């Protein structure tokens, strides 16, 4: 079909680049004009050029696919990377595919090549696949034809093919074909002072459409200029401006509202670039080449008017509008093509002088200036040009563009061995260095690595050296060397030849990587085409007649606000302050829920929550309340009670609630949570709420759906009721809300809103306020959610052939996979997704190795993590995190070091998959995974394994057995309890509370406060009770007691703990002051007829007793000192324990006189985490007073007075005998009326311990000389260890200004 039919006639106003002729016949069959016809086969030989030819029969004119003319194809004289084959298609053509073939009947073919295109035969541009792949794969023999479909069509007149590799057993041999169709266009050239003004029809609103489009193509060598400018009513303007090689779209409304959107980069390369601005449904779609951005214009634009609001458009400049506000902007200098306003071809109208006004010199051809750039691409690149011997330099210069901060621009040796001159970049500044006997340095400008063209001019005249950057006076420097600046034989640009014998060029700096043009020597322009033809100079690893610079940051591969910087060969993402990490800032550093933070052992507090991980939703600082349920609490701006009174002229009160998270974050949090709720409260007096049962509601609220909700807390949606109406307990049974009774007395309706689809409450309307005497108050609490449906979402695979399948995973440029697994199998595939050639897979390859493998077209790629001696098939949860992006692939398993593999610099970057995603199995192998997979997330989205497992044979939803992995989180004797989704810690046997039994239960005691925990009377003493076996009796006859607690007090002496028995035996822990130092204290257990002094410096210890006169005094220093144990032995038992008392003892029984003396003053201070064997009396009194056998006298309120205790008070332990102890511990232990043998043993032990105590006292008194001065007002008496108990009962000694805390 003849393509030219479609292009005839400009009235069709079609874009030939993007549309196809459609012929619809009467039988409703439509044929679409294809663009794949051969373009080369019918060209004359004069349309072919090459770098060289082996002979006339090997000329470029014979390089046609499937032809045997001449020698069967083109072959150059030499086979090297500087050869090329060029085809002139005669006019600009749309090229959609290319094909190559080796030389007929030979062993000559090209195995890889570059494809270049141009409109003029110079200033070539390289075609890149995926914007990254520079080389095409060619042939593997001389006969087969390899065809490549171009991902994006090329519009050009000239094609050039550069061989990179060829048959090593032959030479370069090539036949070529291109496919496409003719391309017609309308072109206008602007000289920098001209423009076109297109006026719409007189009544533009009559033709207003729902969609408007402005599109064009442009090419220029100037980096700045205005392409489009419009002005409308109400100061609306749109301006499309080229600024420093980037396109800026300015949206203005007056002088206040201004929005700027930037797209594209390096657009001043004298190649065509496509631009489109499309308005549709309140959005603007801004497209530059292959990059697009959607712009929300609701905030400053009337979305119902659109672009048709403007009645004229100026192309090429702004002066066509006569505007004075933007006259400072440059006009465009270059060519525009196919200016389309919707279906209107503006250039065609300009040619016909219809509705278009021309200002200045606008021509309808594109005459391009000739500019020949050269690319320095590698470490071996250099350009050598001859100098003029024995001639002083009059001047020279060069223009360059680069991303690198350093590199050599120019160097040459001075004549007569006078030294060397270097012109180079350092820290993005131009520096000039002349080295002779004295070093001279000049430094100019900065920021020259911005990818823009910059010029450097060097002039040497009459002993003065001048250097100028960008031809600006403020970037000029001068030097006056004492010798003439005359070059030697050669000048070197970019670098030096890599030769050991090279003495003429020395480069102590980095090589230059970038582009150069406009090279002048002695004010004469250098003809780089002659350099390319080897007619002058020499070069290595250069690409002449093209600038191969690439902006790797446009579009940026840095995600989530990461800042992109680049060099010539790579880019870097700065992820600081983004909340994300990785080579492209892809992976979130925060957890997705409070549940995840909790199971890392964290306590309540503020945490950053990233609900969708690597997804687009930003992280948010949210309060996590780690109780038995993990609550996520989101505050808003008005959680206080708001009072309202009747006011004339005001019928309604509107309250809007701004939350600490935005709408997208809130909905994601609510969706992920198992349960959400929000409390609402309404106090009223003569103010109706919902006006039940039949009236219209006076008050309503609006949630996420933007629909009014007419139910209140505790009721269900659509019921128009309050909680009391649903429960049937309203104060007036005729109404469904308490406030609807309309009484003069205050009433309240409150409850929880729990339907997630309506939460959160965004605003509330209160209506019944206009009547005299009406009063109301309302309160909306914070949004609270608990549970994470994703965190525990798991599936159990019990067959190797079983698997779950999901839709294809789409992770073209960035893919992250994270999950937890546990297994006893040695190997298995966790997941796999296949494409035609590409794939992605994560597997357990052995008990100690996880492998992440994939292929994006560059061949299989693997990242491995080995765990050494740690087996991963231990039936415990292990976490795997894999990520693949355009820069690297990484894999992490648990806390093992991260494994990383760099991606190839010029490789494929798009992962293209098309099969289903297999989880727990694979389509390519039979061996699947045996075990559990949990919380599987792909690019931040959690797959619902449980839902899919319910309908899949061989897979069960859920996975029990969490305590093996998380049980260690249960601290302080807490017991891990399995649950369907997770686990919990049972703190019943612990003195601690909290989700992990880590919260200290503490209370402040006053002198009269008493806590008594009472045990049941044993059977022997109470024959009337049943003889049932009860666990509580197990503690009534003990051969050992374990007592532990911590305290903080400024009182001494004091009674801390008292244990009594039904046999009038007792055990007491006393706080006693000893010695002359304010920090020296004793703690005394009391035993009948026995007193043992164990002096010690560390007042923190555990106490346990075994039998009569058997005592373990476990002494612990509070600040990381070691533990000390004391061992005593006896055969008696502490029988029939009656009660444990904390603080003051109020029972009527007889107390030992010394105990009674201390008890009379009570205890002032803090007690925390009190444990007596398996009983926690303080915890029972504070948390379970109604169900525990406790009696509380006086004031007792839970506090945090004990929370400052160290996390690990027992860091080190040493066990040694009592004889080695220094210091004194007074022990009065257990009292008994029998056991003569025990009494004898007690006397013997008493004598021994007294002797040890005397020795300890002697040693201790010697140690006192090193103590600090004793407090004033304290007068120690005799050495009697009983002294503290004989002091006045109400004498209290202050320890220090700051109380200290001790652990027992």
Automatic annotation (TrEMBL):
Residues 1269-1297 are annotated as: Disordered. Residues 30-181 form the F5/8 type C domain. It comes from the Eukaryota. Residues 187-366, 372-547, 793-959 form the Laminin G domain. Disulfide bonds join 932-959. Signal peptide: none annotated. SMART domains: EGF, FA58C, LamG. Residues 549-586, 960-998 form the EGF-like domain. It is a single-pass type I membrane protein. InterPro entries: ConA-like_dom_sf (IPR013320), EGF (IPR000742), FA58C (IPR000421), Fibrinogen-like_C (IPR036056), Fibrinogen_a/b/g_C_dom (IPR002181), Galactose-bd-like_sf (IPR008979), Laminin_G (IPR001791), Neurexin-related_CASP (IPR050372). The chain crosses the membrane at residues 1235-1260. Residues 1288-1297 have a biased composition (Polar residues). Pfam families: F5_F8_type_C, Laminin_G_2. Keywords: Disulfide bond, EGF-like domain, Membrane, Repeat, Signal, Transmembrane, Transmembrane helix. Belongs to the neurexin family. Residues 585-636 form the Fibrinogen C-terminal domain. GO terms for cellular component: membrane. The keyword Membrane applies. Its main location: membrane. CDD domains: EGF_CA, FA58C, LamG. This is Contactin associated protein like 3. It is found in: Membrane.
């Amino acid at each position: 079909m003849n393509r030219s039919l479609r292009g005839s006639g400009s009235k069709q106003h079609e874009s030939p680049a993007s549309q196809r002729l459609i012929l619809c016949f009467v039988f409703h069959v439509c044929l679409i004009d294809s663009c794949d016809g051969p373009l080369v086969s019918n060209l004359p030989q004069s349309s072919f050029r090459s770098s060289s030819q082996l002979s006339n029969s090997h000329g470029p004119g014979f390089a046609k696919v499937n032809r045997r003319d001449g020698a069967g194809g083109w072959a150059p004289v030499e086979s090297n990377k500087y050869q090329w084959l060029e085809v002139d298609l005669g006019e600009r053509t749309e090229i959609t595919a290319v094909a190559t073939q080796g030389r007929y009947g030979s062993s000559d073919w090209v195995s890889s090549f570059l494809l270049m295109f141009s409109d003029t035969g110079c200033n070539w541009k390289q075609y890149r696949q995926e914007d990254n792949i520079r080389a095409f794969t060619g042939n593997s023999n001389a006969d087969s034809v390899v065809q490549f479909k171009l991902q994006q069509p090329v519009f050009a007149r000239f094609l050039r093919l550069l061989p990179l590799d060829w048959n090593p057993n032959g030479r370069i041999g090539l036949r070529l074909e291109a496919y496409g169709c003719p391309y017609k266009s309308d072109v206008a050239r602007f000289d920098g002072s001209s423009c076109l003004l297109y006026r719409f029809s007189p009544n533009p609103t009559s033709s207003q459409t729902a969609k408007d489009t402005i599109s064009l193509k442009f090419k220029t060598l100037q980096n700045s200029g205005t392409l489009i400018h419009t002005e409308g009513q109400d100061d609306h303007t749109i301006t499309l401006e080229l600024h420093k090689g980037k396109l800026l779209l300015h949206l203005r409304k007056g002088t206040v509202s201004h929005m700027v959107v930037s797209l594209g980069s390096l657009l001043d390369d004298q190649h065509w670039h496509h631009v489109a601005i499309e308005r549709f449904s309140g959005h603007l779609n801004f497209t530059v080449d292959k990059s697009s951005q959607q712009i929300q214009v609701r905030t400053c634009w009337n979305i119902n008017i659109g672009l048709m609001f403007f009645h004229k458009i100026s192309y090429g400049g702004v002066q066509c509008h006569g505007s004075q506000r933007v006259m400072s902007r440059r006009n465009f200098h270059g060519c525009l093509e196919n200016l389309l306003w919707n279906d209107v071809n503006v250039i065609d109208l300009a040619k016909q002088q219809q509705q278009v006004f021309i200002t200045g010199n606008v021509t309808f051809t594109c005459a391009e200036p000739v500019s020949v750039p050269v690319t320095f691409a590698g470490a071996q690149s250099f350009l050598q040009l001859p100098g003029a011997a024995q001639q002083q330099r009059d001047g020279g210069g060069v223009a360059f563009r680069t991303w690198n901060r350093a590199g050599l621009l120019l160097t040459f040796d001075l004549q007569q061995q006078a030294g060397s001159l270097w012109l180079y970049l350092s820290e993005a500044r131009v520096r000039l260095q002349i080295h002779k006997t004295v070093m001279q340095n000049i430094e100019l400008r900065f920021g020259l690595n911005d990818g823009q063209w910059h010029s450097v001019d060097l002039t040497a005249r009459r002993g003065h050296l001048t250097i100028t950057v960008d031809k600006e006076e403020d970037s000029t420097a001068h030097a006056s060397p004492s010798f003439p600046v005359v070059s030697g034989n050669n000048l070197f640009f970019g670098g030096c030849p890599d030769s050991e014998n090279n003495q003429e060029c020395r480069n102590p700096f980095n090589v230059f990587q970038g582009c150069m043009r406009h090279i002048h020597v002695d004010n004469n322009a250098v003809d780089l085409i002659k350099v390319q033809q080897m007619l002058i100079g020499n070069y290595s690893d250069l690409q002449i007649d093209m600038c191969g610079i690439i902006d790797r940051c446009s579009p940026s591969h840095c995600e989530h606000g990461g800042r992109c910087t680049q060099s010539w060969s790579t880019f870097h993402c700065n992820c600081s302050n983004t909340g994300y990490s990785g080579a492209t800032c892809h992976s979130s550093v925060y957890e997705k829920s409070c549940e995840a933070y909790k199971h890392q052992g964290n306590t309540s507090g503020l945490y950053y929550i990233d609900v969708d991980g690597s997804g687009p939703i930003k992280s948010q600082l949210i309060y996590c309340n780690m109780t038995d349920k993990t609550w996520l609490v989101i505050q808003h701006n008005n959680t206080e009670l708001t009072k309202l009174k009747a006011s004339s002229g005001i019928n309604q009160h509107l309250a809007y609630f701004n939350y600490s998270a935005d709408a997208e974050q809130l909905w994601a949090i609510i969706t992920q949570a198992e349960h959400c709720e929000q409390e609402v409260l309404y106090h009223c007096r003569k103010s109706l709420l919902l006006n039940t049962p039949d009236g219209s509601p006076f008050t309503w609220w609006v949630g996420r759906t933007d629909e009014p909700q007419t139910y209140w807390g505790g009721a269900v949606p659509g019921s128009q009721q309050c909680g009391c109406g649903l429960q049937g307990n309203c104060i007036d049974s005729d109404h469904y809300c308490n406030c609807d009774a309309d009484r003069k007395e205050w009433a309240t309706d409150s409850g929880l809103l729990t339907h997630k689809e309506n939460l959160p409450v965004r605003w509330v309307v209160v209506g019944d306020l206009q009547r005299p005497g009406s009063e109301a108050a309302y309160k909306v609490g914070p949004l609270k959610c608990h549970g994470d449906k994703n965190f525990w979402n798991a599936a159990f695979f019990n067959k190797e052939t079983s698997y779950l399948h999901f839709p294809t995973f789409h992770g073209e440029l960035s893919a992250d996979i994270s999950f937890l697994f546990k297994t006893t199998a040695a190997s298995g595939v966790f997941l796999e997704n296949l494409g035609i050639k590409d794939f992605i897979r994560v597997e357990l390859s052995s008990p100690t190795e996880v492998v992440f493998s994939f292929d994006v077209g560059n061949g299989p790629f693997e990242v491995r993590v080995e765990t050494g001696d740690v087996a991963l098939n231990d039936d415990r949860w292990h976490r795997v995190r894999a990520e693949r992006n355009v820069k690297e692939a990484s894999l992490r398993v648990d806390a093992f070091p991260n494994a990383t593999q760099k991606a190839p610099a010029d490789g494929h970057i798009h992962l293209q998959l098309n099969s289903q995603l297999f989880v727990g199995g694979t389509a390519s192998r039979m061996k699947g995974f045996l075990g559990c997979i949990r919380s599987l997330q792909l690019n931040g989205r959690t797959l619902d394994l449980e839902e899919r497992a319910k309908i899949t044979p061989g897979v069960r939803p859920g996975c029990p057995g969490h305590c093996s992995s998380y049980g260690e989180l249960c601290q302080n004797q807490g017991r891990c309890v399995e649950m369907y989704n997770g686990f919990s810690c049972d703190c019943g046997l612990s003195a601690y509370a909290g989700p992990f039994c880590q919260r200290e239960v503490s209370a402040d005691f006053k002198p009269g406060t008493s806590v008594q925990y009472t045990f049941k009377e044993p059977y022997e003493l109470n024959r009337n009770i049943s003889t049932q076996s009860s666990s509580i009796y197990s503690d009534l006859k003990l051969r050992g007691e374990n007592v532990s607690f911590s305290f903080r007090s400024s009182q001494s002496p004091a009674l801390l703990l008292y244990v009594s028995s039904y046999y009038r035996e007792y055990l007491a822990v006393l706080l006693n002051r000893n010695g002359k130092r304010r920090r020296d204290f004793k703690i005394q257990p009391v035993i009948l007829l026995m007193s043992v002094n164990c002096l010690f410096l560390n007042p923190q210890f555990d106490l346990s007793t075994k039998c009569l006169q058997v005592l373990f005094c476990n002494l612990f220093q509070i600040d990381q000192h070691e533990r000390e144990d004391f061992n005593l032995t006896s055969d008696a038992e502490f029988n029939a324990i009656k009660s444990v008392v904390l603080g003051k003892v109020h029972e009527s029984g007889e107390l030992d006189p010394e105990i009674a003396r201390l008890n009379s003053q009570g205890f002032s201070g803090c007690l925390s985490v009190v444990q007596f064997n398996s009983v926690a009396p303080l915890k029972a009194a504070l948390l379970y007073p109604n169900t525990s056998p406790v009696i509380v006298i006086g004031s007792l309120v839970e506090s945090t007075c004990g929370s400052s205790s160290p996390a690990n008070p027992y860091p080190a332990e040493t066990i040694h005998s009592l004889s080695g102890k220094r210091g004194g511990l007074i022990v009065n232990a257990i009292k008994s009326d029998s056991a003569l043998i025990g009494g004898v043993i007690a006397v013997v032990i008493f004598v021994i311990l007294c002797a040890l105590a005397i020795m300890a006292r002697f040693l201790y008194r010697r140690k006192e000389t090193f103590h600090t001065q004793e407090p004033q007002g304290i007068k120690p008496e005799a050495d009697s260890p009983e002294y503290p108990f004989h002091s006045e009962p109400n004498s209290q000694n202050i320890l220090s200004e700051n109380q200290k805390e001790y652990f027992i």
